[in-house]
Amino acid sequence: MSEDLQPTVDPTKMGVGRSIAVLTSGGDAQGMNAAVRATVRVGIYTGAKVYFVHEGYQGLVDGGENICLATWESVSMMLQLGGTVIGSARCKDFRTRDGRMKAACNLVKLGITNLCVIGGDGSLTGANEFRTEWSGLLVDLVRAGKITEEEAKKSSHLNIVGMVGSIDNDFCGTDMTIGTDSALHRIIEVVDAITTTAQSHQRTFILEVMGRHCGYLALVTALACGADWVFIPEMPPDDGWEDHLCRRLSDQRARGSRLNVIIVAEGAMCKDGKPITSDQIKKLVTDRLGFDTRTTVLGHVQRGGTPSAFDRILGSRMGVEAVMALLEATPDTPACVVTLSGNQAVRLPLMECVQVTKEVTAAMAQGRFDDAIKLRGKSFENNWNTYKLLAHINPPDTKSNINVAIMNIGAPCAGMNAAVRAAVRMGIIQGHSMLAVHEGFDGLAQGQIEPIIWTSVSGWTGKGGSMLGTKRTLPGKRLEEISQNIAKFNIHALVIIGGFEAYVGGLELVQAREKYEEMCIPIVVIPATVSNNVPGSDFSIGADTALNTITSTCDRIKQSAAGTKRRVFIVETMGGYCGYLATMAGLAAGADAAYIFEEKFDIKDLEANVQHMVEKMKTTVKRGLVLRNESCNSNYTTDFIFNLYSEEGKGIFDCRKNVLGHMQQGGTPTPFDRNFGTKMGAKAVLWLTDKLKECYRHGRIFANTADSACVLGMRKRALTFQPLAELKEDTDFERRIPKIQWWLKIRPIMKILAKYDIKLDTSEHADLEHVIKKSSFLGK
């Protein structure tokens, strides 16, 4: 959107007189419904008419009842459903010009000139072809007398925006496609279940996952479960892989491992292009090693089930962005696709993305496998490199004589152990000796420190909580003992994994450097807390798992309300003063309101919310969900809000309240937290290794500069290291939150989707970027 237009555009009037059609096409993916729901509701919010196209392109061609007007209520209770409610079909008719002509005629008759397509690269390419031919199709329709000159004039141009729905994550230009995260949830549930039975019987399990042309699901699964081997189409194994695989499996057993896990993408192949099948691998392992081996082909289980919180939020954010892109498009704007880069919604030219996606297939066909991995994007390449490093022990011949200590601080959260495992293994690969500090800073002061080796952390990625033990105590009062133990155990570097206490504790160690020389060692803090309140990072390990726990609980609560009708639930979430969980769960579960500390509210706001709920009960959607962050307001407590809604809703609705409590800190980590923890742990130790070389002077380590103690955080599109001291200015220490939080910009979306009449800030919307320019994308 150009800057000069900014002040004059009222988002609630942008769509007046316009019509938008939304369709899902190709293979279904969890989260498509969230995208459809957001497209419909934001379309209606802008004043546009929105139409469902049932059964994908087939419905577009057949017309009639397949294209029908959507209402606000028609997309209610869709968020938690897998698949696509409006149906999807493979369509041969649309591939012919006659078919596309029928489709154009159906759209013109309804005055629809904006099309939102949710599907894979085939579906999006079809949409672009349709747009390119549009004016020619209209000429033919006028000539055939199917439409009038006047109708053709009114619909002279077709705008198209795509959203990528595909569980394979096989579309170049986006970090994640809608459905990928949910598919990983299904796979990891199976992997966790299989590991327990495999350990009981000392078995080897071969798991085949989807991905005919893309190994993303297989690769991330292997990374998230620490698999012994992974077969992906982008990187076929070297010749003689059979011997290598058998050697690796035998080594693992010799080290005391009771199971082996091998992950195979369905499109796995040798360098000569011949397929590698699960049965082939099973025969190899059974014949050569005599191991008890089982094969599990996951199949369509991966497409099914409820969408994860990530996919619901991704679908919702993309839906909003897609409507804005359609309404801002001009005849000169190329068809675009809404994608995700880091945590940013980005618009990219559709055909550029399709082109690069095709180049991957071409590179694989020509045997240029390194190029194929690079073209898949930075995220894929990072996953591949991290997996290769951590999959199997390969320490250097010479030791570095460096001791790196690892500790957990603050409340436990899911994913901490994945970060510890990755840090330990990466350290061993670098030639360091790794030390485990138990019970946080107390353990460091009391000398609860012991060596931790490669096999000590086997199987840790899937374990919740903190295996090292963790406490909230800060180091300030025990600096003397801590400095003595740093000297006694000869600790040269420190990895602190935890929440806000980890940041403050790290800061206290840095401030103590003036008095205690022992503290002059490189320190890295990895944010791990359900609250997502650590300065220097947009995300922290553990927040995704907590978010999914809250979301699935809210689903169940809403389901119970669907039966009783006219019921409002007040749900209290964790997070301290940080409203991240309440806001994101509100978006993922379809809440009517989410009260947080960062967005002040008074009795007038509460009154307006209650009135909004009263109005809602007059519609067909007779249930309500209100989230409240535990520390959003000391006077407007959960009980107060519950009592207020109960009193004001008398005779109209009744209320129930739920305080979710510590279930939000427990559970097995989600695929995102396992993967994120693994990448953070590995990257932290690589950074420490470089810092140690910088700080080595006169035969010893001496680190006293600000940049030798950093927080490793995800910022917009990259993992970055930021000095602890520099982040002080950005931190509200009293409330234990960063002063600026990116997710606050998403809150208006939640309110608009809950039918509040507020202004959406369109100034932040993504402008069209280019794939070729994006160095982060091509990994140059």
Could you give a short description of this structure?
The protein is α/β, with parallel strands linked by helices and 780 residues long. It has 4 domains: 19-176 and 307-361, Rossmann fold (3-Layer(aba) Sandwich), CATH 3.40.50; 180-302, Phosphofructokinase domain (Rossmann fold, 3-Layer(aba) Sandwich), CATH 3.40.50; 393-541 and 669-724, Rossmann fold; 545-665, Rossmann fold.
Overall pLDDT confidence? 92
- The tally of helices reads 24
At the first level of CATH, the class of the largest domain is Alpha Beta
Looking at the structure, what is the overall shape?
globular
**How is the quaternary structure best described?**
single chain
SS-based structural class?
Answer: alpha/beta
Q: Biggest β-sheet: count, sense, barrel?
A: 8 strands, mixed
Region (C-terminal regulatory PFK domain 2): 403-780
Binding site for beta-D-fructose 2,6-bisphosphate: 472, 529-533, 567, 574-576, 630, 656, 662-665, 736
Function: Catalyzes the phosphorylation of D-fructose 6-phosphate to fructose 1,6-bisphosphate by ATP, the first committing step of glycolysis.
Enzyme class: transferase
What layout of secondary structure does this protein have?
Layout: E1 19-24, H1 32-45, E2 49-53, H2 56-62, E3 67-69, H3 97-110, E4 114-119, H4 121-143, H5 149-154, E5 159-164, H6 180-201, E6 204-209, H7 216-225, E7 229-231, H8 241-254, E8 260-265, H9 278-289, E9 293-297, H10 309-328, E10 336-341, E11 344-349, H11 350-365, H12 369-376, H13 378-391, E12 403-409, H14 416-429, E13 433-437, H15 440-446, E14 449-451, E15 470-471, H16 479-488, E16 493-498, H17 500-511, E17 523-527, H18 543-564, E18 567-573, H19 580-589, E19 593-595, H20 603-616, E20 623-629, H21 638-648, E21 654-659, H22 671-694, E22 696-697, E23 700-701, E24 709-715, E25 718-723, E26 731-732, E27 737-738, H23 747-753, H24 775-778
Parallel strand pairs: 1-2, 1-4, 4-5, 5-10, 6-8, 6-9, 7-8, 12-13, 12-15, 12-16, 16-17, 17-24, 18-20, 18-21, 19-20
Antiparallel strand pairs: 2-3, 10-11, 13-14, 22-23, 24-25, 26-27
